[in-house]
Every structure is written in structure tokens, then in C-alpha cells.
Specification:
- The chain is an alpha/beta fold.
- It has eight helices and eleven strands.
- It starts with a strand and ends with a strand.
- 29% of the residues are buried.
């Protein structure tokens, strides 16, 4: 899942981003309303975490403008304005998909983001299967021949993307763009390292192949 955090309180923004990345989400940051709008026009985000009190352009105006798009991101307003009237205004008049007042519990924020992500259309089936591997998207569980397999959040995300591709090669740049964020240098060996660990855990080094110039794919 790719998330944009639009928050001008830089310490809070970095804290949220760090926590979400530990949940295997790709997170970008914007510190003003105009920057948030520009990034949403250039990148397809699943969820936008939007502070209402942004400089240059308010979060309210960003929400109104994005709602005019054909396929806008799901918008979760994260703001200190926590009165019932504020929530009603954000959800009805502005068109936000969810509303969370500050201060908040981080576990609740993660749960709300995942719920919004599930509302994105054209989701693949909950359970994915390939050559004895079963991946449960809802429970974040993987089994190999019926035996549970412990994966890190990033390893799980890579395997999920490869299984959803159904044997079609997933380019290296797409893995970076979808599962990491704009701060990762695509020339680093981070992706290769994750794929290598995943191969070892699956117990079949040949199950995931690296097609030169094409990307990674699952083999039969």
C-alpha cells in the first residue's frame, strides 16, 4: 500500500512515516497543501493522510480539489479539530473518507488505513495460491504446504505482489515504486536482498527468478 502523509509538523510526520514503513507501507511526505496536491496528481496513492491546517493551501481545499479527480486516493483527515461538528463537516461537506482527531493511538491509525485500503476497487482475492504456497492477504499469513512461514512485513509485501502478478515478471522499478518510497535509491541492493531472503525462507531458490531486463517472477 502506498501512503502520502501531508503534515506540516515535521517531527509528527516523520514519526508516522517510520511507523507505517514498519508495517510494510510505502510512505511519502508533504509539508504543504500545494505539495500534497501536486504529489497526488503525479503518483497514485492508495491513502492520503491529510492534516486540515496545512500552509499555502489548507487541507480542506486539498480535499475539495482531489474529490474532483476521476480516481482520487482515499482521504483520512488527521487533525486537532475533533468536535462532532468538525467530523461531520469533514466527512460530508469536504468528502473525506475517514476522520481521526489528534491525539490518536497509532494502532488505530494503522487499522483505519488498512480499512481504507481494502475499499480500493479491483482488489485481488483474499487468499492467493501458487505451487503449495498460500498467502492470506487479510490475516497477513503465509503457509508452505500447510506449514506457517514467518516473514517480515516487507518480505510478505514482495511475495504478495509476485503472487498477484501470476507468473508475469514484476519490474524492479515497480517493486521499488509500490513497496518502498521516493527516498530509496533504486540502484541499491535492498530489493535483491529482500528477494534473496524470501527465496531461502520459501525453501526453493529457483521459485523466484530474476529475468534480465524484465524483473522478478514466480516460476512453476
Amino acid at each position: 500500500m502506498r501512503v502520502l502523509v501531508a503534515e506540516d509538523h515535521r517531527v509528527l510526520a516523520r514519526t508516522i512515516a517510520t511507523g507505517l514503513r514498519r508495517q510494510a507501507m510505502a510512505v511519502d511526505l508533504a509539508v504543504s497543501g500545494d505539495e500534497a496536491e501536486r504529489m497526488c496528481l503525479l503518483t497514485e496513492y492508495d491513502v492520503l493522510i491529510l492534516d486540515r491546517d496545512l500552509p499555502v493551501m489548507t487541507g480542506d481545499e486539498v480535499c475539495r480539489r482531489l474529490r474532483e479527480l476521476t480516481d482520487p486516493p482515499r482521504i483520512l483527515m488527521l487533525t486537532a479539530a475533533g468536535e462532532v461538528s468538525d467530523k461531520v463537516y469533514g466527512l460530508t461537506t469536504l468528502g473525506a473518507d475517514d476522520y481521526l482527531a489528534k491525539p490518536f493511538d497509532f494502532a488505530e491509525l494503522v487499522a483505519r488505513i488498512r480499512t481504507l485500503g481494502r475499499r480500493v476497487p479491483k482488489s485481488p482475492p483474499v487468499a492467493l495460491r501458487h505451487e503449495g504456497i498460500t498467502l492470506d492477504r487479510a490475516r497477513h499469513e503465509v503457509c508452505v504446504e500447510g506449514r506457517p512461514l514467518e516473514l517480515t512485513p516487507k518480505e510478505f509485501a514482495v511475495l504478495r505482489l509476485l503472487m498477484e502478478a501470476q507468473g508475469v515478471a514484476v519490474p524492479h522499478d515497480e517493486l521499488v515504486r509500490t513497496l518502498w518510497d521516493e527516498n530509496l535509491d533504486p540502484r541499491t541492493g535492498v530489493v535483491r536482498a529482500v528477494v534473496s531472503r524470501l527465496r531461502r525462507k520459501l525453501g526453493d531458490p529457483g521459485l523466484i527468478t530474476a529475468d534480465r531486463g524484465q524483473g522478478y517472477r514466480l516460476c512453476d
